[in-house]
């Protein structure tokens, strides 16, 4: 009997403005659009990776450089360490997210690949072990380990990273009435380049502001004080340096904040931006405006989303 596992992993917003490398959110478009990569895994005599989908052509043609192939090799090595025999598989990556978009594109491939492999091999690794592998693979791409895309993508929700103990991803209470409008401009910004342009030191004033904002935001989430939570969403670490890479960023913020927006910022390292509003009509108006004024080419798009509380999802077919 042949077994095939398919895993889906949603797009995500890294940083969420106020939590550089520490806060992330998984996204689910309200119109049912599939905003995330998928990976299929089935048995094979020899390992192979086939890449298909809207953004497949933007990846290097050599599949051995694809992070999904690195996932298989890391997964196999860790299984061997456990003394579990590893068989080869055929993988198909549906590359639905644009590369260098700020939507956690590499994280989505990593999570879909590792989740499909784990389910295919009957879940030998715990959620914690999986997250450690995901963080390490993400670090291979961006130059340093950060979990703010892989964690929400895998476990869902609005997640705060914790480097103490076995719970890397702490799920925060959500504002269920918030719409998250995301707009990808169509250009590519490399995460590792966008990290390299940041200063290596942060001033005492910014350190105090960063700590205060994150602490007050978490408290406001628990007390469901949406105005206070939104007021904390200001980026003192990355946005001042990264926004120069994003044409029309300031004009977009101005429009959003004058048209029902509660907050506006860069998604991950950009160029995608996000706006939060609690009103459906304002969400539509913001999406339309960003589509007309922020998008630069035919690759761009905009979606109104809710937070994806579930995260990665897998299904198995045995035929
Ligand atoms: N499956 C994959 N998905 C996305 N990027 C990949 C993948 N495999 C390899 N890469 C490479 O990783 C880098 C991703 O760049 P990055 O700026 O981190 O993208 P993103 O921020 O969208 O995750 C690119 O050089 C890309 O060619
Ligand atoms: N915390 C990271 C997030 C990068 O997200 P991506 O979607 O741009 O890969 C950073 O800001 O560098």
UniProtKB/TrEMBL annotation:
Identify the coding gene: thrB
Q: Which GO terms describe its molecular function?
A: kinase activity
Q: What is this protein called?
A: Homoserine kinase
Database matches in InterPro entries = GHMP_kinase_C_dom, GHMP_kinase_C_sf, GHMP_kinase_N_dom, GHMP_knse_ATP-bd_CS, Homoserine_kinase, Ribosomal_Su5_D2-typ_SF, Ribsml_uS5_D2-typ_fold_subgr
EC identifiers of the protein? 2.7.1.39
HAMAP family named in the record: Homoser_kinase
Instruction: Indicate yes or no for the key word S-adenosyl-L-methionine.
Output: no
The organism's taxonomic lineage, starting at the top: Bacteria, Pseudomonadati, Pseudomonadota, Gammaproteobacteria, Alteromonadales
Q: Where is the GHMP kinase C-terminal domain?
A: 218-295
Which coarse location class applies to the principal site listed for this UniProt protein?
cytoplasm
């Amino acid at each position: 009997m042949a077994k095939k596992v398919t895993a889906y992993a949603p797009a995500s917003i890294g940083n969420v403005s106020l939590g550089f490398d520490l806060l992330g959110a998984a996204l689910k478009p309200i119109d049912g659009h599939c905003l995330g990569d998928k990976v299929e895994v089935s048995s094979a005599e020899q390992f192979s990776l086939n890449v298909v989908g809207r953004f497949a052509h933007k990846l290097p043609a050599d599949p051995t450089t694809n992070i999904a192939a690195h996932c298989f090799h890391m997964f196999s090595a860790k299984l061997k360490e456990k003394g579990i025999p590893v068989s080869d598989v055929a993988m198909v990556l549906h590359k639905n997210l644009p590369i260098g978009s700020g939507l956690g594109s590499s994280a989505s491939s990593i999570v879909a690949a590792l989740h499909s492999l784990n389910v295919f091999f009957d879940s030998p690794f715990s959620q914690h072990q999986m997250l450690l592998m995901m963080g390490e693979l993400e670090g291979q791409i961006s130059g340093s380990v950060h979990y703010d895309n892989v964690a929400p993508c895998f476990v869902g929700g609005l997640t705060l990273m914790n480097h103490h103990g076995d719970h890397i991803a702490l799920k925060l209470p959500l504002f269920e009435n918030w719409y998250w409008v995301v707009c990808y401009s169509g250009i590519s910004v490399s995460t590792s380049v966008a990290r390299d342009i940041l200063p290596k030191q942060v001033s005492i004033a910014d350190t105090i502001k960063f700590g205060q904002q994150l602490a007050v935001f978490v408290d406001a989430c628990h007390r469901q004080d949406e105005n206070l939570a939104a007021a904390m969403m200001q980026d003192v670490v990355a946005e001042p340096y990264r926004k120069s890479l994003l044409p029309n960023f300031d004009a977009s913020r101005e429009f959003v904040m004058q048209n029902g927006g509660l907050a506006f910022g860069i998604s991950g390292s950009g160029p995608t931006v996000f706006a939060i509003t609690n009103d459906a009509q304002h969400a539509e108006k913001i999406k339309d405006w960003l589509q007309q004024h922020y998008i630069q080419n035919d690759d761009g798009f905009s979606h109104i989303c809710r937070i994806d509380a579930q995260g990665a999802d897998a299904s198995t077919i045995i035929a």
